[in-house]
């Protein structure tokens, strides 16, 4: 028996902060100040305003009921005290919601987990800020109801040296119980860190003991940094816990989602990894899944891919 009497349409997408943060890993404060400016300028060049327009067009075509987004960001630029230079804030959620409304859509925030945040003085004299968060959105006229909203950070996180000082790359998850079309299920959205299998192992344990420790039908989505093509240990732990991978259940062709170039200007996709996943168990079925943001027509007028990563669309019952 299906979990719901009507298909549930869901998208998950790592929207990309707009710049590689790797240059910020530095022991030298003066080097960090110069690199901070370069990172921010790359963010400006990857133009989230235009990318959000491209995403909104895709959402308009597919009309998903629920959306899970990772690497949502707030970038800020603050002049030194006493300066008449302007301060600017770029809030990805505000920008995306504006683009969705322009496309005739309205999505509300169901859950939001705030992740790492930091400010750094740049070589220009400006102070540059970045805050990362993930969200679960629902279409405003979606007939489902949400309860038991949870928003958490992982207790174990990666730490990097930024300007010679330790900086925790705090990430996390959010979840909600959804009652829709005669059924109740749990949806969980998460983002795992790069580079550290041990941290990801701890994050997997936290999820399995936390929001995934339920008898409810469960849909887990997000960006896992596990490359499922290689059947890595953390990926197998979810499969061994009874989860089905929506991509392998429905498709035989590779579902690679990572990675376009950091400037988003590579001519054709060179996606070699599969890190974006829909995983489900306890009664869910899925019979349709495909990638988003991999066709040339999805690019912005300025030739940018909508994200460094492909998104996923799937239906569930």
TrEMBL record:
InterPro entries: Endo/exonu/phosph_ase_sf (IPR036691), Endo/exonuclease/phosphatase (IPR005135). It comes from the Bacteria. The keyword Hydrolase applies. The keyword Nuclease applies. Gene3D superfamilies: Endonuclease/exonuclease/phosphatase (3.60.10.10). Residues 11-237 form the Endonuclease/exonuclease/phosphatase domain. Keywords: Endonuclease, Exonuclease, Hydrolase, Nuclease. GO terms for molecular function: endonuclease activity; exonuclease activity. This is Endonuclease/Exonuclease/phosphatase family protein.
């Amino acid at each position: 028996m299906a979990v719901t009497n009507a298909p549930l349409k869901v998208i998950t997408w790592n929207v990309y902060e707009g710049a590689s943060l790797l240059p910020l890993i530095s022991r030298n404060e003066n080097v960090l100040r110069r690199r901070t400016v370069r990172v921010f300028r790359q963010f400006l060049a990857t133009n989230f305003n235009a990318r959000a327009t491209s995403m909104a067009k895709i959402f308009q075509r597919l009309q998903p009921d629920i959306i899970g987004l990772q690497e949502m960001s707030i970038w800020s630029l603050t002049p030194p005290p006493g300066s008449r230079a302007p301060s600017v804030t770029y809030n990805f959620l505000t920008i995306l919601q504006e683009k969705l409304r322009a496309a005739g859509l309205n999505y509300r925030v169901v859950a939001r987990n705030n992740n790492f945040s930091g400010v750094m003085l740049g070589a220009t004299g400006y102070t540059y800020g970045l805050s990362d968060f993930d969200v679960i959105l629902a279409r405003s006229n979606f007939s489902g109801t949400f309860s038991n909203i949870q928003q958490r950070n992982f207790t174990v996180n990666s730490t990097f040296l930024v300007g010679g000082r330790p900086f925790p790359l705090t990430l996390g998850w959010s979840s909600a119980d959804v009652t829709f079309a005669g059924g109740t299920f749990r949806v969980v959205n998460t983002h795992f860190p790069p580079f550290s299998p041990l941290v990801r192992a701890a994050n997997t344990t936290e999820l399995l003991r936390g929001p995934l420790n339920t008898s409810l039908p469960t849909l887990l989505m997000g960006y896992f940094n596990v490359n499922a093509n290689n059947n890595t240990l953390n990926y197998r732990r979810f499969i061994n816990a009874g989860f089905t991978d929506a991509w392998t259940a429905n498709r035989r062709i590779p579902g690679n989602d990572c990675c376009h170039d950091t400037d988003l200007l590579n001519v054709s996709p060179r996606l070699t990894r599969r890190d974006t996943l829909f995983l489900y168990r306890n009664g869910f079925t899925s019979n349709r899944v495909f990638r988003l943001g991999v066709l040339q027509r999805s690019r912005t007028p300025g030739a940018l891919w909508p994200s460094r990563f492909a998104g996923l669309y799937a239906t569930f019952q």
